[in-house]
Amino acid sequence: MVRIAACQLSLNIEDTEYCVSQALDSISKAISNNAEIIVLPELSTSGYCFQNISEVQTSSQSIGGEFVVKCVQLAKENDVVIVVGMNIENDSKYWNASIVIDNSGVVGWYAKAHLFGDEGKFFTPGEKAPLVVNTSKGRIATMICYDIEFSEWVRLAMLQGAQLLALPTNWPEIGQTKTSPPMEVIRVQAAASQNKMVIAAADRCTTERGQNWVSSSVITNFEGVIEALADSTINSKTQIIYAEVELPMDTSITDKNDVRKDRRPSLYSSILDK
Amino acid sequence: MVRIAACQLSLNIEDTEYCVSQALDSISKAISNNAEIIVLPELSTSGYCFQNISEVQTSSQSIGGEFVVKCVQLAKENDVVIVVGMNIENDSKYWNASIVIDNSGVVGWYAKAHLFGDEGKFFTPGEKAPLVVNTSKGRIATMICYDIEFSEWVRLAMLQGAQLLALPTNWPEIGQTKTSPPMEVIRVQAAASQNKMVIAAADRCTTERGQNWVSSSVITNFEGVIEALADSTINSKTQIIYAEVELPMDTSITDKNDVRKDRRPSLYSSILDK
């Protein structure tokens, strides 16, 4: 069993200093509550609602920057895994990224491949598959927000052997029909169930420049069953949810069936890529 | 708007005569309740729990056989679309099939590609993509039960322009954690939402040779929102659920995003088929 925390944070591009300190504080709080894997939202250190590229630049962090160094220190001192969605500047480009840190330091980082809404105005789309890495707490995949709606993308994580998918997200309220739980959570449940992997989605909360948010962080087990769900009224409030879950050892679902082995890739490839 | 019926039927290999008459009666009843698209469960005319190949042979139907002829007659007389899961004998092989019929006759049939449990002992696995056909009531896809857990397969239906997926199913109770709605329904909701298509799943009910069933027929709109759900206690009872839904005209989800156009197939192909 591993104890997971998903931190639902209040993000605002107009107060990035607060975003950064809140991110570090939430990690410390999760550690004090015995979390072993800690997931933070998309763009945790900057906020989401950029109006111009200058805001992207000034709110960006480098991989070797002060924030990441502090996260590494927390991870080493406490033997935890930290996954943070953040605005990363690298190679003179800006990336909507997710960084994975464990007791050995930065294990890797991922750039969002499926950009949503206006994100393409500010960020370079990622060109690499979902990051899947061995950490001190298991084999962990990461992708970001809209990525998970592309079932092919979740499959790539499963095919690389992920036991847990850490999903930093900022789920916008865009007039979708309200359901309980929200459809964003239902999609997470199905992705977990169909790929036999634990999923921890850290969403954000509170209005930002007039934009509302679903605010529905969730942790499921590898059957897709909800183990922890944020108090998820629209925009909601800052909170950390926790769950103790078992990581899957394989992709079998019965003694005769296996969601990985039962795939028939020869039937998929020719048509899928039209 | 189109009015859809999903018929949840009591199936039993030990009384195939009843299965056949019940299937026809349920179609007539759905017609009398103004249904325009009528979906029946997997293996509606035979039952599911075969013990030997002889039972498969004696309970099979041909495409030109009496049952299909009666369905065609009902479809022509009433201008409805009928999708039936059935045991089809064709080319001296047995197929766990789904047949699509409209006012023009048999539009096509599909053989289940992802066989579950012991099905491979009795049926030849299909080698063709999900069937997607134009009917008098819209562009309709069909696949069967376990197929829908393969998100690649639902994508193939979407990529072929399906507006509605008709899913004959026999969802077994195999010790999965009970959720409300069942995880089988949650997977249907996510598939609808991620592919912007209506889904009508017709499940079966009542114990068969000691096997229990989820018994949770469901119709969702193209956002994945449940529009009709069977009274779905385990094994449940015979019933027809109805919903009037709008068929999608495209795959857009906002003015800037589209679940089909936002795919990045060049990133999927190389890795997906490992």
Describe it.
- Two copies of one chain form a homodimer.
- The radius of gyration of chain A is 17 Å and the shape is globular.
- In chain A, helix 1 packs parallel to helix 3 (66-78).
- In chain A, the strands form two sheets. In chain A, strands 1, 2, 3, 4, 5, 10 and 13 form a seven-stranded mixed sheet that branches. A six-stranded mixed sheet of chain A has the order 6-7-8-9-11-12, with helices on one face.
- The N and C termini of chain A lie far apart (42 Å).
- Chain A is of the alpha/beta class and 274 residues long.
- Helix content of chain A is 24%, strand content 27%.
- The longest helix of chain A has 17 residues, at 16-32.
- Chain A contains six helices and 13 strands.
- Chain A has one domain (2-272): 4-Layer Sandwich (Nitrilase/N-carbamoyl-D-aminoacid amidohydrolase), CATH 3.60.110.
- Chains A and B meet through helix 4, helix 5 and helix 6 of A and helix 5, helix 6 and helix 7 of B.
Keywords, separated by commas or semicolons:
homodimer, 274 residues, alpha/beta, Nitrilase/N-carbamoyl-D-aminoacid amidohydrolase, 7-stranded mixed beta sheet, 6-stranded mixed beta sheet, 6 helices
